[in-house]
Design brief:
Layout (H helix, E strand, L loop, with lengths): L6 H12 L3 H14 L7 H25 L14 E6 L5 H9 L16 E7 L2 E7 L12 H7 L2 E7 L5 H14 L2 E4 L11 E10 L22 E3 L8 H11 L2 E7 L5 E10 L4 H8 L1 H6 E7 L5 E5 L9 E7 L1
Parallel strand pairs: 1-3, 1-4, 4-6, 5-6, 6-7, 8-12
Antiparallel strand pairs: 2-3, 8-9, 10-11, 10-12
Helix pairs in contact: 1-2, 2-3
């Protein structure tokens, strides 16, 4: 079948041959891909253009890596916690962060379209969680700075494309590359690594589950630590998205605490985000050290057994507890 390419395509092709930089060539190739009619006669040409874009992206990344400052390997934490999206090329990380946070991350069906970190805030109930989209983890090319971002993150969200030929192998391969950079994924890990090897809390995501060729109730077994939480999602089809957000929050190992001044209404607008296991005294210290030192007792509202019940300063708080501090 003939390609029947329009004149605009050949004009872009001439500009491509005259282009000097990788960035300019990539933009022209994308333009050619958009102009090209999509039918069986252009399938081979479409694949050739996508391969050229991926190759030029790698070349551009290598040049940029030499020019990047050392400060790129750290992203200030915002919101209730920082979760980094990690995966092989085309596992859907950019689509995920774009849909969940509305951050501007380029979505493309060719590898290496992301070559810088993209941050966005994901709303979850009454708080926001920071998501960070990183360049793909691939044996072809890896941005050295991104592994320190992973080491310092609160949670690693490891993605595999459920529609790919061998999702478990893709997952295992990504985890192995992380391991060579002293990052090990676990059900429980350190938010702040204390040694040369960082053991990071993680969740596993079978992404693009709408493309899974088999029964969605019979997903492949994870090749990693079997205690790592696993979830299947489709961002585009809105499958298990709310459960995915909830899993991220739970795995950050934090809770929300609300405060109330005696005789006044509770403040539910700005909860304190504190580590799980925080006591009443710890929470009071966040408000002000003097308040914690002068506290006599507190009243707490939360689950059904707590309706203004008096508790002591060593009482351990739970998510969504509301406390009212009484002073001496």
């Amino acid at each position: 079948m003939p390609a029947n390419l329009p004149p605009d395509y050949y004009a872009a092709e001439r500009r491509f041959r005259a282009a000097k930089t990788e960035t300019e060539k990539i933009e022209i190739l994308k333009e050619m891909l958009a102009i090209m009619p999509k039918h069986k006669g252009t399938e081979h040409l479409q694949g050739d253009l996508k391969r050229k874009i991926a190759k030029l992206n790698v070349q551009a990344q290598k040049k940029q890596a030499k020019q990047k400052s050392a400060g790129l390997d750290h992203i200030p934490r915002e919101g209730a916690g920082q979760a980094v999206l990690v995966g092989a090329p085309n596992t859907g990380k950019s689509t995920m962060i774009t849909y969940l946070t509305h951050a501007k991350s380029e979505i493309a069906d060719f590898p290496f379209s992301t070559y810088r970190p993209v941050c966005g805030m994901m709303p979850f109930e009454d708080i926001n969680i920071q998501l960070v989209d990183l360049p793909p983890v691939s044996v072809t090319y890896q941005e050295s700075w991104m592994f320190n971002i992973i080491r310092l993150a609160d949670l690693v969200v490891l993605l595999a494309d459920a529609g790919s030929d061998h999702p478990p192998e893709q997952l295992a391969h990504t985890a192995e590359i992380l391991k060579t950079h002293q990052v090990i994924l676990s059900a429980k890990g350190e938010k702040r690594p204390s040694g040369s090897t960082a053991v990071k809390p993680a969740i596993i995501v079978w992404n693009k589950i709408d493309r899974w060729p088999g029964d969605q109730r019979q997903l492949p077994a994870s090749p990693l630590d079997h205690e790592i939480p696993v979830i299947s999602v489709s961002i585009r089809k809105d499958i298990h998205v709310d459960a995915f957000k909830k899993m991220i929050f739970n795995c950050l190992d934090v809770i929300r605490v609300y405060t109330k001044i005696p005789g006044k209404s509770a403040d539910y607008d700005k909860p304190y985000i504190v580590p799980a296991g925080t006591t009443v005294y710890d929470a009071a210290s966040l408000i002000h050290k003097d308040i914690a030192e002068s506290m006599k007792y507190a009243r707490i509202w939360g689950s059904e057994k707590y309706e203004g019940q008096r508790v002591e300063r060593d009482h351990v708080l739970e998510d969504k507890d509301m406390i009212e501090i009484h002073m001496r």
